[in-house]
Design a protein that fits this description.
Elements: H1 2-25, H2 35-47, H3 52-59, H4 63-75, E1 79-84, E2 87-95, H5 97-117, H6 123-149
Antiparallel strand pairs: 1-2
Helix pairs in contact: 3-4
Amino acid sequence: MEAAAMQIEQQMTVLLRRVQRIHLITATGEVHLDRSAYGIMCQLADEGPHRLGALAQAFGLDPSTITRQVQALEEAQLAVRRTDPSDRRASLLDLTDEGRHALEQTRAFRRERLRTVLTEWSASEREDFARLLGKFNQSVDQLMAAERGA
């Protein structure tokens, strides 16, 4: 396990160094989405409207940081805050129609680029990678939840 852990840590470091480059080469469309905007928009599209506090917790960020990022989305008219029907004192952030369209365009382009990167991988390799990456992310989420509870 120790040799595997070292190799995984090294490859994670390489991946982290490439994240910005991956983001830049997969940017497209009339609307440029920075990493934080893209992440927030994906969260909203995949899981529905969120309170800002829930977004901050989901990303492990300070509420003031998420607030600044959300304000940029609102100024670009990609997201909007609406009153939370379950607690009218709070608000929920959701994507606008323009935001959904921009995200759909960006995701389609990124997925096409990803297909190009994985062209030489077999279907089985792609499925294994997707499954293991999902398992890894779930394990990280469990660790973060346990640390928040500690």
